[in-house]
């Protein structure tokens, strides 16, 4: 079938207590930056891939290993008997998928989560807002179940009561609501003209509070975001036209 999504399991994991992070590029790179940072900082391994004939025919190379654009990352944790042993799975792509594949991709994720009896799906998104480089982005949340909505309240996330969410995240939300699956969507404000590292750091900070035992440190991403902001502000300042009296007139042009 042309729209068939093929899942390839590379390493089986016990996902019954997993939080599944989902990130596909939509508004800016906020979700992609956040998901990629978690994969790197937690040293997650590639444990599966999703592929389709309709996906962009591009291989993503990581650690010398080629994969389809949509990959799944995770790691088997060795937990003490008395330790809260929540797991984290990251499903992500740096490349957008075709519009007509959004629903099949969302259904493939939901079906996999159902088969593995995962705990919660958290979709990461950007909300297009004309932020300046030094403005702090807000994070909004919307959930499908009481359990997802409790996380919004517990972590002081501003609830999204009206609006629209597109792409895979939006489809996961309405399909999750219909099926009773725990789905939470976190949206960080982002200016699509800017990298969005500060919004990504905000998302990572919230995930780190939800899963404190994983010890995800968002500080390096915040520092990286501040460096990016300074670089952007410097570039914007340099790009501004000089006042007429400050402009050098090349000799010989006028008289």
Keywords, separated by commas or semicolons:
alpha/beta, Rossmann fold, nine-stranded mixed sheet, two-stranded antiparallel sheet, 11 strands, about 25% strand, disordered C terminus
What's a concise summary of this model?
By secondary structure, the protein is of the alpha/beta class.
Structure explained in plain terms:
The protein is α/β, with parallel strands linked by helices. It has one domain (14-233): Rossmann fold (3-Layer(aba) Sandwich). It contains six helices and eleven strands. It has a nine-stranded mixed β-sheet with strand order 1-3-6-7-2-8-11-9-10, with helices on both faces. Strands 4-5 form a two-stranded antiparallel sheet. Strand 9 (139-143), helix 3 (146-154) and strand 10 (158-159) form a beta-alpha-beta unit. Helix 1 crosses helix 5 (197-210). The radius of gyration is 21 Å and the shape is globular. The relative contact order is 0.18. Mean pLDDT is 85; it is low at 251-255.
